[in-house]
Amino acid sequence: MTPSSPAPPRLPGGGRARGVFRAVAACVVPDATRLDAAQWDEVEAIVARAIAARPRAVRRQVALFLELLEWLPLFRYGRRLSRLDPARRARFLDLLQRAPVLLLRRGFWGVRTLVLMGYYGRPGAAADIGYRADARGWEARR
Amino acid sequence: MIASRSYDIVVIGSGAGGGTVAQELGPLVRDGVRILVLEKGPRFADQEFTGRELEMADALYQDGGAFLTRDGTMTLAFASAYGGSTVVYTGTSLTAPARVIHAWAIPGLAHGDLTRRSAKYAEQNNVHPLDDALINDNNRLFLEGGRKAGYLVEQFPVNVKGCRGSSLCNLGCPNQAKQGTNRVQLPRAERAGVEIVTRAEVLRIEPDRTLTVHVSQKAAGTKGAPSEWAPGDYQVRTRIVVAAAGAIGTSALLLRSPLPAPRSLGHGFTCHPALILVAEHPHPITNDVGHPKSYFVDHAASERFVLETCMYFPFVTAKSLTGFGAAHSAIMYAFPRLQMILILACDHAAPGNRIAVSRAGSPVVHYRFTPETIDGLVRGTRAAARIFFAAGARRVHAPADPPLLEAADAGRLEERITARHFRPGMLAVSAAHLMGGCGMGRSAADSVTDGWGRVHGIPWLRVADASLFPDALEINPYLTIMALADRVAEGIRRDLAATGA
Asked: Which residues contact B430 (CB under 8 A, 6 or more apart)?
C-alpha cells in the first residue's frame, strides 16, 4: 500500500470484533481455519466493504451483535465465545439460530451471511468449490 | 442553483414498465411531444457485465441484493439500471393465468386483452423455448425427476437471442443475449427521439406536476456511464407523469410526494417468497453452464407453490443453505454435482404487508409470512425433494433437522420437512417478484389506480409497473407488466388525441 492509498475498510467494532468475527467464521466455515493471513484479510475486506455501504444504524447493529455474541456464552459456559472450544462454540451458535427470540435468530443469520459472503465471495473460494461459470458459456467447456 | 427543464411526458423508471411506455409513446416525438425517461440507475457498457458475483450484485442491485424487509426476515432483489430489473431476470416469459386475472376482477381489464398484448411483446423480444441441445443437466434432471415423481413439467419460453449459456443471467448477461428493455424497447425509444437520463432519481412529485430530481455523480472506480445531465438538482415540469419505478420505487415515490393519493397507496404488497434448494448427485452434472431456467412445475392453484429450475452463484448458494459447519461446507464443495430448484410461494395480499417510507423518505417494506405462505413453502420443498430423489440425487439439503435428507428419507418427507423448520429468521428467503402497492381497482375506496393505470383523483398521474397488481400474479411477472404498460401508453395516446394535444 502506498502512503496515499486510502485505508482498507475495517470491520465495525475494532480489534475485538475482528476476533469474534473470526471465531464465528471458523465455526460457520470450518475450512476458514486453513486461511492464511492474506486470505483472512481478503475475507474481512469483502465484509467490511459490504458493511461500509450500509447505513450507520446497520453498522452499529453489526458491531453490537458481534459484542453480544462474544459475551452471551458467558452465561451458559462461563467463557466468552472467542475462548470456547470449537464444539461448544458450534453448539452455542446452533442455539442462537434456533432461538425463540427473532432478534437473536436474525442477528445470527446476519453475521452468518457476512461470513459466507466474505468466504465464498473470494474468487479463490469459487474455484476451490468447483464453480466454473464463464461468460463464454458452453464454448468454455469444449 | 436548481436547473429547470420542461417536458410533455415524463416516465420514471426504465424497466419492463417504463421501457415499454417509452417505446410505445416514442412515435409521438415526431408530432412535437417532448418525452423524458428518468432512470435512477446507470447505463452499463456491454463489457462491464463481468459475471463476477459480488461485483455485479453491488453494481446492479439495490443494497447489493440485500434489501431487507422491516423485520429482517426476507431479502428483496430489484435492480437499478438502464433497463431496470429486466437486466437481471432470466428472461422467462409467461402470460398471466386466466384464473388470476379473473380473480382480480378489475373493471375493463380482460384476460384476452392481456394475452394479446403479451403476445406482442413476446414476439418483439424473441420469446421462444430454448433448443433441446442447449438444455443443461440441471434442467434435464428436473424434467426427468419431475415426470418420474408425477408432476406436469412445463418449459419456460425465454427471451434470448444468441444465448451462449453463461448461466449468469441474474448478474446481467455478459453476452447481451437476454432481450430486456435495455436491448429492445429503450434503444427503440431513443431512436424515436425519447430522451433518457440515467442516474436521475425522482425525489418527489408536486401537485403542480413538477418533479424534484437529483442527478448523481458517477463515483470513482464504479461501473456505468456518467449521467447524460450534469450532476445536481433539477425541477422538471411536465403535463403527464408515468411512474414505473417498480413496486417499491413507485409506491415510495408517491408516498413521499404531497399528492392526494388514495389511502390504499403502499398496501397489498406481495412478492412470491422464494427458497433455493439443492441436491447432490453422485457424479458431476452441467449446472453452471447453460441457461439456468428452462422448466417449471405450477402448483399455484392447488398448493400455493411454483417450482422452477435455477442455478446460483457461490455466495448466494451458501447463504441459501440452512445451517452451518461441516455439513454446510460439504454441500458447497460438491458444487459440480449440485442440482438446484427454486421454490416460489404464492402469497396473497395480506393486511399489514405494505410499502411505507421512513422519515428520510427511503422505502420500508413491512412483510410477515402468513401461515398459508409458509405452507406453500413447506409443500414446495417436499415436492422439490421428491423431484431431486426421483432424478437420482444422493441427498437433498433442505430446511429440516438435520438439513441433509438421504435417499432413505424420500419416503417420509412429510415427517422430515415441516412448518417448524420454516420459522422466519431461520432460513434465507428472498423475493424478486415484487408486486402491489398501487393496485388497480374500481375506485379510490378500494384501490390506487383504475384498470388503465390512472391514479384515482389525479388524472395526469399514471402507474405502469408491477405495483399495479392488486394481488400476486403467481407466475414470473415481466410480460404482464409490459402488457399493462402497453395499456397505459394507449390510454395516454387516447387522452392526448381527445384533448387535441
From this structure: B65, B74, B75, B76, B77, B273, B274, B320
> Is A131 in the B-facing interface, judged by CB distances under 8 Å?
yes
Q: How many domains does chain B have?
A: 2
Instruction: Flag if B328 and A29 touch (Cβ within 8 Å).
Output: yes
* Cβ distance of A137 and B164 shorter than 8 Å: yes
The pLDDT tens digits of the residues spanning B327-359 come to 999 999 999 999 999 999 999 999 999 999 999
Residues of A in contact with B314 (CB under 8 A): 120-121, 125-126, 129, 131
Helices (H), B205-363: 246-255, 300-303, 314-320, 326-332
pLDDT for res B501: 62
Establish how many alpha carbons lie within 13 A of residue B212's alpha carbon, considering only the half-sphere containing its beta carbon. Answer: 10
Q: Does residue B330 sit in the same domain as residue B454?
A: no
Beta strands in B166-310 (DSSP E): 195-197, 200-205, 210-215, 232-237, 240-243, 274-280, 295-299, 305-309
- Structural domain including B408 reads 131-156+274-346+369-423
The answer to whether A9 faces chain B, any CB pair under 8 Å, is: no
| Spatial separation of the C-alpha atoms in residues B67 and B414, rounded to whole Å | 32
- Answer whether residue B242 is part of any domain: no
The three grid cell numbers given for residue B119, joined into one nine-digit string? 403476445
Residue of A nearest to B135 (CA): A138
Q: Is residue B233 part of a domain?
A: no
| Shortest distance, CA A2 to any CA of chain B (angstroms) | 18
Residues B114 and B137 in one domain: no
Residues 6+ apart with CB under 8 A from B7: B34, B35, B36, B195, B236, B237, B238, B239
Instruction: Please indicate whether, in this complex, the C-beta atoms of B426 and A109 are within 8 angstroms of each other.
Output: yes
One-letter amino acid for residue B291 of the chain: H
**Where in chain A are the domains?**
14-128
Q: What is the CATH number of the domain that holds B186?
A: 3.50.50.60
- Of the residues B131, B289, B320, B328, the best mutation for testing chain A's interface (the one with the most A CB atoms within 10 Å of its CB) is B289
Average pLDDT of B171-175? Answer: 97
CA neighbor of B460 nearest in space, from B4, B5, B23, B8? B8
Q: Quick check: B43 and B274 in contact, CB under 8 A?
A: no
Identify the CATH number of the domain in which residue B148 sits: 3.30.410
Whether residues B89 and B201 share a domain: the answer is: yes
Q: Which residues of B touch A29 (CB under 8 A)?
A: 324, 328-329
Last residue of a domain, one of B423, B444, B467: B423
Peptide bond into B402 cis (omega under 30): yes
- Answer yes or no: do B207 and B329 share one domain: no
Confidence band for A29, pLDDT divided at 50, 70 and 90: very high
ipTM: 0.93
Judge whether B478 and B468 are in contact, CB under 8 Å.
no
CA distance B498 to B501: 8
Least reliable range by pLDDT among A65-69, B100-104, B246-250: A65-69
A140 at the B interface (CB within 8 A)? yes
* B325 contacts A90? CB cut-off 8 A: yes
Q: Which residue has the cell 443469520?
A: A109
